[in-house]
Amino acid sequence: MLQLRASIVLKELVQTSPKRSFSDIIRHKKTLPNAYTYSAAYPDGRISKLKTVCNGRPFILPLAGRRFLCTKTEGAIDPTAPVKKDESVQETTAEKKAGILPSLEDLLFYSIAEGQERIPAHKFITALKATGLRTGDPRLKECMDMLKVTLKSTSDGVMLDRHLFKKCVQSNIVLLTQAFRKKFVIPDFQPFASHIDTLYEKARNLSGGLVADYIPQLAKFSPDLWAVSLCTVDGQRHTVGDTKVPFCLQSCVKPLKYAIAVHDHGTEYVHRFIGKEPSGLRFNKLFLDEDDKPHNPMVNAGAIVCTSLIKQGASNAEKFDYMMSFLKMMAGNEYVGFSNATFQSERESGDRNFAIGYYLKEKKCFPDGTDMTAVLDLYFQLCSIEVTCESASVMAATLANGGFCPITGERVLSPESVRDTLSLMHSCGMYDFSGQFAFHVGLPAKSGVAGGILLVVPNVMGIMCWSPPLDKLGNSVRGIQFCTDLVSLFNFHNYDNLRHFAKKHDPRREGGEQRQYTLGPLDYESLQKELALKDTVWTKVSPTECNEDSSTTVVYRMENVGEGN
């Protein structure tokens, strides 16, 4: 018989139990301990003991994020002690006898090994990539570095036993456990990626549109180039097409520049100089609102004024370095470059922007002491910043993730700046197509004349589509098609009902259709079903029958879960 207090330990234990069925684990019981005892340490110093027999019977796994203290029985060994190679067999036998609780690293090994005593390293890598994570993910650097070192020390350079595997993954076990237990925002990533590939192929067959030629350097790109990259808020990545070809951000830099300005100065200050309304006019019109301010930061006039707010008082060189540093942080230190040829081309063909600049100067739209020609130079430079689809998708994912870069975990932008940026991208980001895009796609986005579309699915992922041929409104033909098809297939539209819109897939749910079922607080009936137990195991008892601290009102007793307790 086992007495267990109904507490946060059990709640977390149930909520964090892996989706892998107990029968799968018990099937390999020869590799698991026959019995174990552990104690959970509480913040107030209390200790609650739980003994479970797993000799072919169900057992409960330790909860994630809480340190467990193993109670050593006679003959038990210390699992933290260093293991000598010639003692590995003896240790395995000793563990079975002592009944030490399997660690998260052990359970991860068992799930990949499928009953084998050793696994090839490539099997682990393949399984890792299937979750959407990359081996080059900065968060997995320690794990990948240790894997390389460990493989060099093995006789065949390929196989890993349980102890070597644990050595490799222990530094990143929390992230890896989340990935393999499908706890990321897109739990079934491979089917989702297959859908993305299908949408990509459909858009690739389009042949309309023209490559922008009013900036000579842009006219050199092939109209056949087409790429899509995505990055989720958990750092899951997928790319298809010409995703490593650098191209200039052009107008896609406008929301990023605005986000940095709001991050530095706050919303109120920035909007002393720039409005929030769609203009209803072409993006490069010489026109201001009734308050003599640019309509919004997504048109050229607003973007030029926004440029004047970046690191005021510094030189252009310092401002440019500051922006590059910020954008690299947003991209998780992936590729962010600069095309001097495009910058020179922009400046030589920038008469309209110079006209806008002088008009803004006449209307006193800039902060006091602003050098208008220096602002225009920096404006052209920022438009000429280069990215790839892959690095830009991480930038978009940083916006989707509330200002945290998903692949580094670093806070880059304030929540206020991200919220304001996404709001204006939604209403003003797609030139004169903004209203239709908001209606049909319903997601924040920004397009650029280089052919890029920076798309954000808030709290889910960021996407960069790139194809140079543009429609008559200046948006990528293939990019618009892809975005439209995306929300036709998935319920990503901001106003899709997540509960009743049955016609669309929801990749945020495991299986793509039904919401993942989670156990509620103290839901013992559901727990019993989870454990696949036929007999009643939970009965309410009086607190006085329990030897533990009786500060919790309700106490439950677990019965008949195994023999020989």
Automatic annotation (TrEMBL):
Enzyme class: hydrolase
Domain of life of the native organism: Eukaryota
GO molecular function: glutaminase activity
EC code: 3.5.1.2
Domain Glutaminase EF-hand: 105-187
Entry annotated with the keyword Endoplasmic reticulum: no
UniProt similarity note: Belongs to the glutaminase family.
Protein's recorded name: glutaminase
Taxonomic placement: Eukaryota, Metazoa, Chordata, Craniata, Vertebrata
Gene name of this polypeptide: LOC107660591
